[in-house]
Amino acid sequence: MRDREDDLTPDDAIAAQSNQQWPGAIRAVLAGEQKYTNISVPSLAIYAVPHDLGPMPGVDPANRAAIEARDEATVGAQAKAFEEGVPTARVIRLPHAKHAVYVSNETDVLREMNSFLARLP
User: What does the DSSP assignment read for 42-75?
Assistant: First the structure.
């Protein structure tokens, strides 16, 4: 585990999550966490599933495939849970997009936002 939250790699974050050894800022955010279980308005959620992991020098193809599969399973489950828990939601999955989907997939995001907004009453 590293000392600074912004130095965390995806594997560090997964390890921290599984061990519940969160860095200070993450613990503070989670301490104030509020679960919204009743969202009754139209919602748009865009997920990068799986994420674009970029180059991974020194990682063999089998390990990379395992990392991508874990990312797809984790984020895919989050997207599915949101979709099932919020029936009014439109959930979009963009394969191999970056976490900042509005940067890596600007055209897709604008298309989906415009389509979503056009359907609002």
Answer: -EEEEEESSB-----TT--HHHHHHHHHHHHHHH
Other beta carbons within 10 Å of 50 = 21
Cα dihedral 30, 16, 97, 89 sign: negative
Instruction: Please report where in the chains the tokens 């055209």 appear, as a residue.
Output: 107
**Both tokens assigned to 74:** 């984790």
Its pTM stands at: 0.69
Q: Are the C-beta atoms of 12 and 57 separated by less than 8 Å?
A: no
Residue-wise burial string across 23-40, b where 16 or more C-beta atoms lie within 10 A, e elsewhere: beeeeeeeeeeeeeeeee
pLDDT in tens, 24-76: 777 777 777 777 778 889 999 999 999 998 888 988 899 989 999 999 999 99
Strand-pair partners of 43: 89
